[in-house]
Protein 1
Amino acid sequence: MSADSRFHLFADGELAGVELPRRFTYPFCYVPHRLCEVAAGHLQQYLDSRDDWCDELQGGKMMGVLVVERDGLIGYLAAYSGNLAHRYDHEYFVPAVCDLLSVNGFFAREEKIITEINHKIAAEISSPERASLVSRLVQATEACDAEVAQYKAFMKESKTRRDVARSEGADVQSLITESQFQKAELRRIQQRHRAVIDEIKAQIDARDAVIAELKTERQQRSVALQRLVFDRFVMLNARGESRNLNQIFADTLQGAPPSGAGECAAPKLLQYAYANGYKPRAMAEFWVGQSPKDEVRRHGCYYPSCKAKCEPILGWMLQGLDVDPNPLENAAEKAVEVLYEDEWIVAVDKPEGMLSVPGKLSVDSLQERVQRMFGSEMHIVHRLDMATSGVLLFARTAPIHRQLQSMFKSREIEKCYVALLDAVIEPRSGSIDLPLVLNPDDRPRQMVSYTHGKQALTHYEIVGAEDGRSRVLFYPVTGRTHQLRVHAAHCDGLDAPIAGDALYGTVADRLYLHAHWVKFIHPVTREPIKIESKVPF
């Protein structure tokens, strides 16, 4: 077997008693295999030894490890997402599928041309000639406005004088002639200024036409370069077949690869393994460094592969491998308990791991289950995340459904959730107000954005600690997607993810979040009502 500096062998002691997985990791929901954790530990030690990367890694980066087998030897490959220290080809790591930073590469050459166009555009926009024309236009416009305003004031005074003269019996025809002359003179003043303004605008438009042509050329070159780049990203799968990224994304909703596609750690790892005869056995991706302010990423925590960039790519690359099933597609049948029922409302206890409403996949959902139990006219009033359990309301009629939804919107329905946090926090209470928006590149993850986010407000109370975890009561005022999960995990929230949160924390046997009770005034009987579900943890 030829030496490969990118293939890192495990020590015999690290392999002792460890059984290799029978199936490869399902990358969008997984618990990391023990050997992946060992490999991640080795990689972290290597990163700690690189003082020259310290500042960049402190800023945060996604890393990946792939446990592989070849010629009876078990080891791992390592990768980072994007580039590191402005390079794609560090020896310890697998290389990029397509090295965009190669000095003599096509991408560098074309980017240089686009950069030159950017400089030309900037030079045209900020040129002294254009600045002088813009200044002259402002001055000409102001001069026009001032003279027109002055002459209109004169015309107003003249009209007042003519009105008095007309009432005193002056010659009407002379007054009419004077009025007509002044109106004609106003038009002459406006036309004279307009001619000057139009001439200046024409000169500015001529310069802006050059800028527009440069921008069009830049866009055309950028689109062509992007497509050419994605043609160069030829991705393999376990069957030995290949497709480029344009082909892979052709049948997706977006129709074309997003920026950065193919540069994440997981595709790099699989590509290198296939190209060099390694058999993939298990994979994991983890974050190093600080969390971005708008997202929730915690140092050392494992995360699923991103959806927008990696789902279509990995869907292709994993073909030919025996992969763990998607837990969403294989969720076991779970009993649904009715917590409350009258002739208008039904409340049920949603099991964790069940969708609230039907999704893209053909799997059971709580809405379908309740409709089978009570009839197809049942309307779900609100939703819980698939991984969250607890109280969920249904309306028996459309009018009641509208009333209950209106009550949620006007915050007339109080809610209490119970959660366990992956940290011990001193008992306290308070509020978290962090606006949330969908991360378009990594659905369904949410991120904090003070520019684009919608208000998300949560009151909380830390009520105790147990087994290294804190028990917290959440009282959400708003109902944004993943609100409690992000508010718990974000550094400006509680800075402690909910236990078992695969998206914002660490995977466990379940997400330890439960919708404990709801309180409201019954929309028909007007009686106060509280519906409660027993906390299962």
Protein 2
Amino acid sequence: MVRRRAEKIANMFLCVFGLCIILSSTVFAESPEEDQQIAGRVLFISSYSYAWETVPEQMEGIKEALPDKVILDYKFMDVKNANTPETRELFYESIKEYLRATADYDVVIVGDDDAFNFAMTYQEELFPDIPIVFEGVNDAEKALEVEHHENVTGVVENLSYQNTIALAQKLYPKATKLVAILDDTITGEASRKEYYETAKKFPALEFQEVNASTCTQEELIQRVSSLDESSILLYIMCTEDGEGNVYSSTSSVEMITDVAAIPIFSIVSNGVGHGILGGELVSHRKMGYQAGKMAEQILQGAETDSIAMLKNTPKYFCFDEIQMKKYEITKKNLPSNIEIVNMEENFLTRNSKVVKIVFWVIVVLGALLCIMIFDNIRRRKLNGALEKIKETLEEASRYDVMTSLFNRRVFMEEAEKRIKNHEEFGILLMDLDNFKNINDSLGHNNGDVVLKELASRLKCLNDENFQAYRLAGDEFTAIIDSKNPDVVEAYAKEIQFSFKKPYILEKEKYFMHSSIGLSMHPQDGETVSQLVASADAAMYKVKNNGKGGIAFYDSSCDEVVYERKRSGNL
């Protein structure tokens, strides 16, 4: 009888155990969490902003390489527009707080030299156990120093000086000088080192440079315009000049090509299609793709140290057909399998022989007249171009490319001027709540639509007392010229009221809101950094209380920031 009872209990146990297996299998198969499980988290830190021409190409390459279930976030140092100790310190503080407030990342990808140097400087503090993959680093010597560094690998951007110079020398064998346009930025210094190391391979050419960082804008233009056929002109980098002007690659290329009397070769893709003849160029998209593939290997379990550093950057030959025609260069003079931009079948192409005959007849008949008036016309044209370019670039360097609002640099200058004049005013700092969800769910194009629409609404508030600026990403700020906190708060409420109007994205309505922090000068800070930090702390207080509100800075804001730091949520 005892035996039967034992068998009965054993059978009951087996039945219950089998039922548990069936139920657990069913739950596992239908678990929505399993379908939504991510394959990893990757953070891309760029030295520049999204508006810099090469950055979208790098981001597209990284995104293409990573699986769909990998979360890819972005942070921008924006050193082209704001490169001061204060802005670098602000970025350091913001990334430190961001890393504390978000979930851990599995891989950090850094783009170009400034982000690479930042990651190496703060690796132990900010990224102690996170693999770092770099790409676009021009300082090959510094990159090779970390080849055997723990948790670091990447792609060195070795520019194609040798092949481009060799081709230019073949096209212009009478040239005796090679003149490069460079600047003193971190990337420029690395490029300069590689440029002069190439000189020993071309003994027939005297290597020189035009250093934009030490020239006024007028001096830069005059030096370029004075070059003749005895020189080969090579564009490498021009993002600043000695007067403090900051240039995008497109604006600097247009300025230089407008006055150059000889063709311009290049080793970077930015200016091809805007006046540069061409050369062997670095593919930033492919370089980003290679870095993304390295990150994917790490996500799949590979040790970072086992992934070899890539020292040969992907390159391709590319030329502008407009410039080829201008300088009478045909495809037979160029390497095979080249890419050509601005290619168009036009009247000149179809009737090139007839046009050349007519052209030379006109040249012969007008030669005497041209000799007499050429110098006068050239002088007038150059002076007019100088003034026009100077005015255009001075104005363009003050604006954010995407939103057309004044940029971070102008905000810093305007705030510092008011502080120097002992004026009383308010600082407004805001960002869009849950903006990341828009980028992740609808894509960065729709995110850009939101930022442009928000900027348009902020512009409507601009008056003699209120001026809006874009800092970076979805962060906006404003200066309110009033010592009355009620007036400052009234503008903040106007901004909040503007959010009642929905944003139209892909024919759907999206209602959004923002968190706004306010600080007053001189009560809440005696420097721009202190005022921004106070407004930032007030904004965190708003976010801590549920987002979508407005708060002035007070001592309780510091307590909120402290508690968030202590709890690891900041």
